[in-house]
Amino acid sequence: MSRTVPSATPSRPLPKSSGRPNQLFRNLNSKIALTPMILVAAVVFFGGTIWTVIYSFTNSRLLPRASFVGFDQYERLWASSRWIISIQNLLIYGILSLIFSLVVGFVLAALMDQKIRFESAFRTIFLYPFALSFIVTGLVWQWILNPEFGVQGIVRSLGWTSFTFDPLYNPDIVIYGILIAGLWQGTGLVMCLMLAGLRGIDEDIWKAARVDGIPMWRTYLFVVIPMMRPVFITTLVLIGSGIVKLYDLVVAQTSGGPGNASEVPAKYVYDYMFQAQNLGQGFAASTMMLLTVAIIIIPWAYLEFGGKKRG
Prior knowledge:
The protein is an all-alpha fold. The protein has a single domain (about 30-310), classed as MetI-like (MetI-like fold, Orthogonal Bundle). It contains 14 helices and no strands. The longest helix is centred in the N-terminal third of the chain and has 32 residues, at about 80-110. It starts with 19 loop residues before the first helix and ends with a helix.
């Protein structure tokens, strides 16, 4: 009598856990330790930002007061020639600083990447200005660009008596004198960031380019630079933050002069809040600076991170 063997039923696979609870409690001690710092930063940043925006609509003078006047402070702000000059100066400084910092920094990094002798010494020399404060840099370049005993004085003492180079005393080009000091201090950091990015490129890419007979400049332009996109983004963020908060160099070199020729928004805010004792006008100017940064950052962040999530 044959016995019927029951067929084995296939076992159902267990549902996979999403793993989110485990990720949530991963490194729990570190997250708990960071919570106070995150809360303080959020309160200080967001709370201070909201407070500044609200009081920019008031007629606050020496002390904040809830006397709302609508958009009067903003109308006065954009009717001020001093504010318009500061915006123009910041645009000129910002655009030229971005271009020259990236170009000069990348060229220096490409030269350093050729395994030259005394590379560490050259790196130290180029990076050393970044270790100085902006006040020290501004004072140094104020002496260098002084027409009496600076570059102009030295060249004239050599016989070229008609030579003229006094950017800090010429209202038409004073912002370029400040730009020279800013590039001297910041280009070394850009060079180090670019050099770190170049050292991260696989050596096989260079070998393949040489085998295919691709010129070096085409390899840099079409292969290396696209691969260094994260490095360029980091560098742009660092340069951009330095541009927006430009203040120390201006105060150390020109104090906003001649006249208001080298005025910048950060100095405008400081002068109105702490010298003119007009908090409402200073809050309005700082809010406009915040709005400008947001207009640039928010679309970039959406394209950079929102696109990845959709993908």
